[in-house]
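hiii so um. not sure if this is the right channel but i have a protein structure encoded as tokens and i wanna go backwards to a sequence. like what aa goes where. can anyone help
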């Protein structure tokens, strides 16, 4: 089901452990996919640099840029998750969602 408030929105349902789940809309799906495609392209360019025998310092700088891009994608997903998934889940009484969020944050910042 499309959300007319957010033309690039994506709706899905979470099935949390021990709950009936909840449904919500992600507003940044298109942005996340675009950023992922750019990061993938950047990684392919880094692979080409390695294959071409480019200077290690240049390769490391590009790897740092890719890591930053991936981190920013994760931050965007986390922001969207908190604003939509977590808020919706708590409103629907899905307390397990908070434990799942804490686990996801711990793994993301590791």
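sure thing!! here u go:
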């Amino acid at each position: 089901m499309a959300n007319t408030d957010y033309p690039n929105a994506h709706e899905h349902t979470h099935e949390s452990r021990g709950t009936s789940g909840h449904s919500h809309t992600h507003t940044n799906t298109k942005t996340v996919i675009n950023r992922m495609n750019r990061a993938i392209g950047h990684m392919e360019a880094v692979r080409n640099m390695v294959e071409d025998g480019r200077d290690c310092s240049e390769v490391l700088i590009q790897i740092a840029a890719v890591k930053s891009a991936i981190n920013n994608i994760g931050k965007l997903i986390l922001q969207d998750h908190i604003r939509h998934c977590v808020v919706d889940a708590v409103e629907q009484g899905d307390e397990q969602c908070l434990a799942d969020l804490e686990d996801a944050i711990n793994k993301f910042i590791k």
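oh and Strands lie at 10-14, 22-26.
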